[in-house]
Amino acid sequence: MSYKNLNEFLLALREAGELVEITAPVDPVLEITEIYDRVVKKEGPALLFMNVRGSSMPLAINLFGSRKRMSMALGVKDISEVAGRIQSFLDLKPPQSSMEKLAMVPKLSELNAVFPKVVKHASCQEQVILAGEGPMLDQLPVIQCWPRDGGKFITFPLVITKDPKTQQRNLGLYRMHVYDDRTTGMHWQIHKDGAEHFRNLPKGSKGRLPVACVIGADPATMFSAACPLPSGVDELLMAGFLRKRPVELVKCKTVDLEVPAEAEIVLEGYVEEGEMKLEGPFGDHTGFYSRAKDFPVFHVTCMTRRKNPVYVTTVVGRAPMEDCYMGKAIERIFLPLIRKQFPEIADICLPWEGAFHNCLIVSIHKKYPHQGKKIIHAIWGLGQMMFSKMIIVLDHDTNIQDLKEVSWRVLNNLDPRRDIVFGEGPLDELDHGAPRDFGGSKVGIDATRKSEAEGMFRPWPEDIAMTEEIKRLVGSRWKEYGLDAKYGQDHTPGV
């Protein structure tokens, strides 16, 4: 099932035993982070803090922080179901008969459901506070995540902008450093679509870019804001696809933008060309603090909200954190699209420890010499995968989701001179290991089996493996050996 709003999702989590309500008073400065960090590291439940000091709003965190909840958020039993839906659309062919045309009707109806729909009245505008009419950001239970953070940060805002040139909408996930009741930083990294919209303001015009920030929405919409869609593709289309029904939008009160009608809280305002302010430092998803740096300033002109809103936040840091489960879902969902461009790819893996951009592992159906190196260079030219600082390529029969197997094969297959390639190119702005901002060196490791055509002048050895006959025999007689049953389960040869 899909969820119309956050409240429906929270109700489903509560009924599934996946939500714990905490009524004890808690401090938004560091204390919530420490509670959350202990829970998320054990793949524990979502948390709803009912008594956050300094605010009357409940605070929800860790909504996506387990495999089960990530699937629940997208209305499926397993993330692979979403990937299967995408694959079925990619496999569509022009119908050749009347029966084939009729069979396509449900698919076409499903596609029609992805387009957002504008409504006149919305739950997110049950209360409207204009600038000067009362406190706005001071009402929110904004947290300070880590001890050396530059202050409190809104960590899960869905930031909506339109390109001044094309009017194309973007929904992005950019942290916001709270400076006071009316202003925040806007952490638009240079490669992000929001930053591109800001750069497209007429230079020297002191132009203002309208911005709307949504805090709390249905889970599919929140997840879609984190998805690395191609530039110009509306994230709300992705949300509609995941929900199997359109996202309803309503026009903002003070800016020319539309926001999800079922949102919890909406901050309307603008950023102004030429106005920058120091933002950060911030304890980031790499597990290290990102340094303080000048970013645009967001001015709040209006806050709209439900009568009883829930404030949604998250904390990032050393893995595993909530964003790790979101990243794994993105990896699974977008695999069919990657395979469509590179059919030889069998699987991909983004290890949590690599913070999504430091390492990418790929397995391929290798058919010709140097195909591993071809894939390395191809991925460096593919959208946000251009940030991959290390790419490891293995054969299709490697379980690349098992990092022990990856290590075993790479460490045994590698000849450094033959198999390692270096490159230069764009890197993520948060990559503190790079010698300069936005770029540096990259490494590709082709750990596939090698042939003579690739400089291998002796036979490649076979993997050690037991015969299927003996494996079946031992499995059928396991009780006779008097050994614990757990030793006979899921046996991997050599491990």
> Would you tell me which CATH topology of the largest domain applies?
Pnp Oxidase, Chain A
Helix content: 25-40%
For the sheet with most strands, the description reads:
7 strands, antiparallel
Rounded to the nearest angstrom, the distance between the terminal CA atoms is 40 Å
> Stretches where pLDDT falls below 50 for ≥5 residues?
none
SSE blueprint and pairings:
Layout: H1 6-15, E1 19-22, H2 31-40, E2 46-49, E3 59-61, H3 67-73, H4 80-90, H5 98-112, E4 117-118, E5 127-130, E6 153-154, E7 158-162, E8 169-173, E9 176-177, E10 183-185, H6 193-199, E11 208-215, H7 219-224, H8 235-243, E12 248-251, E13 258-260, E14 265-279, E15 282-283, E16 289-290, E17 293-305, E18 311-312, H9 322-341, E19 345-349, E20 360-364, H10 371-379, E21 390-395, H11 403-413, H12 416-419, E22 420-426, E23 439-446, H13 468-476
Parallel strand pairs: 1-2, 3-18, 4-12, 20-21, 21-23
Antiparallel strand pairs: 2-3, 5-17, 6-9, 7-8, 7-11, 10-17, 11-14, 12-13, 14-17, 15-16, 19-20, 22-23
Helix pairs in contact: 4-9
